[in-house]
Design a protein that fits this description.
This protein is of the alpha/beta class and about 425 residues long. The protein folds into 2 domains: about 230 residues, Aspartate Aminotransferase, domain 2, CATH 3.40.640; about 120 residues, Aspartate Aminotransferase, domain 1 (Alpha-Beta Complex). The protein contains 16 helices and 15 strands. The strands form 4 sheets. It has a 7-stranded mixed sheet, sandwiched between helices. It has a 4-stranded antiparallel sheet with strand order 11-12-15-14. It has a two-stranded parallel ribbon with strand order 1-13. Strand 7, helix 8 and strand 8 form a beta-alpha-beta unit. Helix 7 runs parallel beside helix 8 and helix 12 packs across helix 15. The protein is globular and about 60 Å long. Keywords: Amino-acid biosynthesis, Cytoplasm, One-carbon metabolism, Pyridoxal phosphate, Transferase.
Length: about 425
C-alpha cells in the first residue's frame, strides 16, 4: 500500500484513493528505466503533502506581499542555503515551478524577443526550451541550433564555436535530455566568453550526479545553472536556478514577478529535504552507483547486439538505436512496458523516422539504483530487454508474459520508498 497511508483520502474520495494506490503498486512492480524519473523518500513525500500547500508567499524572504510568513521564510532560507552549499554557488532561487519555467526565466532575464539564442537541436538530444521551433522559446527568439558529430554521436564543439562566432547569440544553452556523455563545461564557457554570451548549463538530468561527485560541475564555468529537482537529484517535481552574484538579481526578477506568483511552499520544503539527503555520504555513494549501473547495463546491451548512441554512457542515461533490430522505438517501448520494464521511445541522432514514431529508446538507471539493484543485475535486465524487443517484432506475447512474471519476482525483493 501507499506509504504514508491514505486513510482520509480513502474515506473522502475512494475512487481517487484507489487510483493512487494502483499507481504505487504499479511503480513497485515495475523496473522503472525512464531516465527522468526516480523515487523520492518518504520524508520528501511527507513534506510535499504538508499544510504548507495552504500558504501564499508571493515575493522573497523578508520581502513578501502577504502576511503570516514567520514559518515559510525560514523554510525557503533553508532550501536556498542548502542549494548554495551543495552546489557551491553564490545564489540560488528555489521558486521555479518546474524546469521549463526556470528556463523561460533565463530568457526573460538575459534576452529580448527576437534576440538570437543557441541550444542543442531537439532531435540530437536537446530540450524543447532550448529554442526548438514548437516551443515559445523558438517562436519568440531567433534560435540557432548546434548538433552532433555523425561519426561519434557527441556534441560537435567545432560547430558550436563556428555558429557562435557567426550568429553572436545572447544565450548559449548546454545540456539536454538525451546526452549519455560528460558535458564539456569548460569548452562551452570558452566559446561563450569569446562571443559575449551568457552560458546556461541545464543540468536537469545530471544534477544528482553533480551533487554526488559523479559528473563534473558547471560551477565556475556557467554563470547560470538551471535544474529540475527530481530525476537524479531525487527530490520533488520542482526546479532551481543557481547563479553567480552578478546574475542573481536579473534571475530573481525574472522568476518573480516576471513569470509567476507565489511559490509552492510545500514543494520548497520538499526540495529542502532532498537537498539535505543529497549532502550525505550515502547519496554520494548512490550517485556513483547510478553511473556504475548505467555502464554495466550499457556493456551488457552491447554484448546483446544493441547499437548505443556514442557506444556507451558516462552518466545515468543510455540511448539505443533500434534501426538494426528492425523495430521502431514506439512498439518496442510499449512491449517492454507490458513486460514491466518502463522506459520511453526517443529520437536518435539523424533519425529518419517521425518524432512520434522514432528509431530509439531512452533509458536510465537512477530509479533502479534507488531500489538497490546493482551491476550484477544488469546482464539479466539486458537479457530481458533483448528478449522483449525480439518478441515484439515477432508478435510473441508468451515471451512478454514470461518476462513480466520474472520482473515481478525480481523487484519484489527490493523495497520502494512510498510503498509498503
Amino acid at each position: 500500500m501507499h506509504n504514508p497511508p491514505l486513510p482520509e483520502l480513502t474515506v473522502a474520495d475512494p475512487e481517487l484513493a484507489g487510483l493512487v494506490e494502483a499507481e504505487a503498486a504499479r511503480q513497485h512492480a515495475s523496473i522503472r528505466l525512464i531516465a527522468s524519473e526516480n523515487y523520492v523518500s518518504t520524508a520528501v513525500l511527507e513534506a510535499s503533502g504538508s499544510v504548507l500547500t495552504n500558504k501564499y508567499s508571493e515575493g522573497y524572504v523578508g520581502r513578501r506581499y502577504y502576511e503570516g510568513q514567520q514559518v515559510v521564510d525560514p523554510i525557503e532560507t533553508l532550501a536556498v542555503d542548502r542549494a548554495k552549499s551543495l552546489f557551491g554557488v553564490e545564489h540560488a532561487n528555489v521558486q521555479p515551478y518546474s524546469g521549463s519555467p526556470a528556463n523561460l526565466a533565463v530568457y526573460l532575464a538575459f534576452a529580448q524577443p527576437g534576440d538570437t539564442v543557441m541550444g542543442l537541436s531537439l532531435p540530437m538530444g536537446g530540450h524543447l526550451t532550448h529554442g526548438w521551433s514548437v516551443s515559445a522559446t523558438g517562436r519568440w527568439f531567433r534560435s540557432v541550433r548546434y548538433g552532433l558529430r555523425a561519426d561519434t554521436g557527441r556534441i560537435d564543439l567545432d560547430e558550436v564555436r563556428d555558429l557562435a562566432r557567426t550568429e553572436r547569440p545572447k544565450i548559449i544553452f548546454c545540456g539536454g535530455t538525451a546526452i549519455p556523455r560528460t558535458i564539456d563545461f569548460p569548452a562551452f564557457a570558452e566559446i561563450a566568453r569569446e562571443v559575449g554570451a551568457v552560458l546556461v548549463a541545464d543540468i536537469a538530468h545530471i544534477a544528482g550526479l553533480i551533487a554526488g561527485g559523479a559528473h563534473p560541475s558547471p560551477v565556475g564555468h556557467a554563470p547560470v545553472i538551471s535544474t529540475t529537482t527530481h530525476k537524479t537529484l531525487r527530490g520533488p517535481r520542482g526546479a532551481m536556478l543557481l547563479t553567480d552574484a552578478e546574475h542573481a538579481t536579473a534571475i530573481d526578477k525574472a522568476v518573480f514577478p516576471g513569470l509567476q506568483g507565489g511559490p509552492h511552499n510545500h514543494t520548497t520544503a520538499a526540495i529542502a529535504v532532498a537537498l539535505r539527503e543529497a549532502s550525505t555520504p550515502a547519496f554520494r555513494d548512490y550517485a556513483h552507483a547510478v553511473v556504475a549501473n548505467a555502464r554495466a547495463l550499457a556493456e551488457a546491451l552491447v554484448e546483446r547486439g544493441f547499437d548505443l548512441v556514442t557506444g556507451g554512457t558516462d552518466n545515468h542515461l543510455i540511448l539505443i538505436d533500434l534501426t538494426g533490430k528492425d523495430i521502431g522505438g514506439k512498439p518496442a517501448a510499449k512491449a517492454l512496458d507490458a513486460a514491466g520494464i518502463e522506459l520511453n521511445y526517443n529520437a536518435v541522432p539523424f533519425d529518419k523516422r517521425k518524432p512520434f514514431d522514432p528509431s530509439g529508446i531512452r533509458l536510465g538507471t537512477a530509479a533502479i539504483t534507488t531500489r538497490g539493484l546493482t551491476p550484477a543485475h544488469m546482464p539479466v535486465l539486458a537479457g530481458w530487454i533483448d528478449d522483449v524487443v525480439k518478441a515484439a517484432g515477432a508478435g510473441d506475447t508468451a515471451t512478454i508474459g514470461r518476462v513480466r512474471e520474472q520482473v515481478t519476482e525480481l523487484v519484489s525483493g527490493f523495497p520502494m520508498p512510498g510503498f509498503a
